[in-house]
Amino acid sequence: MGTLDWVVVVGYFFVMVAIGLWSRRRVLNIADFFTAGGKMPWWLSGISHHMSGYSAVMFVAFASEAYRLGLTVYVWWSLTIGIGVGIGAFLFAPRWNRLRAKHDVKSPLEYLAKRYNLPTQQVMAYAGALLKVVDIAAKWAAVSILLRGFAGVPITWGIIIIGLVTMVYSVLGGLWADALTDFGQFVIQAAAGFAMFFAVAGRLGWDFPATIWDKLPDSHSDPLAGPYTSTFLMALFLIKTLEYNGGMWNLAQRYMAAPSGFAAKRSALLSSALWLVWPLVLFFPMWAAPLIVPGLEGAQAENAYIEMGKQMLPAGMIGLVLAGFFSHTMAMVSSDANVIAAVINRDMLPHIWKKVKAFSADNQLLLARVTTFTFIGVSMIIAIASGGQGFVLKVVVDLVAATMGPIAIPLMLGLLPWFRKVGSTAAIASVVGGLGMWAFLYIEQMNKAAWVTKGVLVSWPLLLSLVLYLAIGFLKKEPSTERDILLDSLNSDDVSDEPEKVKA
User: Taking Cα atoms as reference points, which of 402, 489, 499, 415 lies closest to residue 98?
Assistant: First the structure.
């Protein structure tokens, strides 16, 4: 990297911190910190939803899979998310918003105490929080690998530098800072993505999206290849539909922050369109990479995008592309930190530390900032301890994708009126059974069991969790008038018959 590249990167960091400082003035209480007070424009909510859904993992782990296997990574990742979010625009997005508008809900898990019961809420809160801290550690590792590849910065220092910048604007500005930096990062990412796309086009010709496939192995144009089977695809589609419509808690926040349920629906449709189209701009250079930087084997494939950037981009452009990588990771981490802080402050701490309920508004806001700071710090420590290389894809697919289903099923299906008689027994069994199945399969995989493929590891925990939720819910119905009132209130934006709020 040259001087101009460093100027671009450092300038980007200063802009992110400045946004955090500016956003701090808009955060007067925890409602502003966690849900932007329900005042976020639908288009900003939609862009923020999209940007918060992926990170530099795309340019490390997924770039590696695109280099090795071709088209399949778009099919099982971007396409499933785009379609899933489009479905969720009608099923889930408006309901999340109405939880905030009608019930003063500030955390995606807050409604669970009333929907099921307190033990169910606590089981899901602890399981999800532990999963998220490891997930975010993988994101730090991914972006630090990129920083090392482009600039020679050691992984540990890369995590510290990027983590501290993210920590500053997240702690100061809450969800407003997250969303505004998401928008700025979207603009930077667009410039960086098109820069790489045009550079590849300049090398291979403007028709390269159509012509590269004849020069690549035949399997690179297959929708499913390598370990990514139809079973894996179907399981991941259900997982991503649940995950990106609120199972990934930070994305539920984006819908909650919109002014109304109708606005949240528009946000989801915008995010869905972006998921279907924009990743193609980013993936085509990755698919062309074997023609430009051939011979990257094994773990070296994680450096495919880095090697292309070094060869093809002029001064200043490498810094812009690297800033684009940062934007992915910082967007996801800051939004995850915010929602984890919401879960800890609203759903976990009040049952551990009774005095929290009596905190003043100022002290609640201070506690939210301290929790955000702590979460980011712990995730950075785990990332540093991991060493980075090889850690990223294993966490994202083998851990996050495989365990997200069991955690998300009771949370997401609990919003829908069709499952109103499914109670806490089914919900807890679903979470515990699914995670138990994952633990068993993961141990078998560690013991080199050939039958534990990626498809098995991802699909079996999801399937068991879903079966337990539906079967126990059907056999042991647990009707509740309070639950009926809650679910019925989520059907429309009409507040004339607003029921009692979940929490004061």
Answer: 489
Q: Does residue 229 lie in a domain region?
A: yes
Over the stretch 43-70, which tens digit does the pLDDT of each residue have? 999 998 888 776 666 666 777 888 888 8
Residue 249 in any domain: the answer is yes
Global confidence as pTM: 0.80
Residue 407 lies in a domain: no
CB 312 within 8 A of CB 323: no
**Nearest of 326, 451, 387, 362 to residue 156 by alpha carbon:** 387
Tell me the per-residue pLDDT of 142-163, one tens digit each, with 9 for 90 and over. 777 767 776 777 878 878 887 8
In a domain, 471, yes or no: no
For the stretch 285-340, pLDDT in tens is 889 888 888 887 766 777 777 777 777 777 666 776 677 666 666 767 777 777 77
User: Of 337, 346, 433, which is closest to residue 114 (Cα–Cα)?
Assistant: 346
* Interatomic CA distance for residues 305 and 73, integer angstroms: 15
Task: Decide: 262 and 101 in contact? Cβ < 8 Å.
Answer: no
Per the structure, the complete domain to which residue 199 belongs is given by 3-388
Rounded to 10°, the helix 155-204/304-312 angle is 60
- Give me the DSSP letters along 279-346: HHHHHHHHHHHHHHS----GGGGGGHHHHHHHHH--TTHHHHHHHHHHHHHHHHHHHHHHHHHHHIII
Q: Please check whether residue 114 is in contact with residue 28, taking contact to mean a CB–CB distance below 8 angstroms.
A: no
> In the numeric block, which tokens belong to residue 299?
């773990």
**Domain count of the fold of the chain:** 1
The pLDDT value given to residue 393: 46
Structure tokens at 316: 């200043």
For residues 299 and 146, the answer to whether their CB atoms sit within 8 Å is: no
pLDDT above 50 (res 499): no
Question: CA angle 205-211-212, nearest 5°?
Answer: 90
Give the CATH number of the domain where residue 251 resides: 1.20.1730.10
